Amino acid sequence: MSPAQEQHLTHIKLTTASNLDKKYRKGQAEHGGNLWDRNPFPELAEEITDLITYAHEVESRRNDVSVLIKQAISSLSERNIEHATNLLEQAYKLLN
């Protein structure tokens, strides 16, 4: 792999490990007990449903942001800076 790919992979691994650590600790604070003593199956269907819902929302927002950015670019080409700025602010809010 190239150095850039190695760096990208390292970033993914570090971010994943950090997120996993935070999530595990949050779950322990909320639920207590040993995770390995719990039956995960009853919650699995709910977690999968949540994941599908979140994935749909991410795709929807990606599409909305794409439209707003295209409109902002068009406004910039027409030298309508105020309108372009407004569109970019809307796009930013969808991402945060």
Question: What is the H/E string?
Answer: HHH
Strand pairing plus helix content: what structural class? mainly alpha
Our measurement of the CA-to-CA distance between the termini, rounded to an integer number of angstroms, reads 33 Å
Number of strands: 0
CATH architecture of the largest domain: Up-down Bundle
Beta-strand content bin: under 5%
CATH topology of the largest domain: the name is Single alpha-helices involved in coiled-coils or other helix-helix interfaces
Bin the helical content.
Answer: over 70%
- Radius of gyration of CA atoms, rounded to a whole number: 20 Å
* Mean model confidence by pLDDT: 94
CATH class of the largest domain: Mainly Alpha
Distinct helical segment count: 3
Low-confidence stretches: none
> How many independent structural domains?
2
Largest sheet: none
Query: Which outline best applies?
Result: elongated
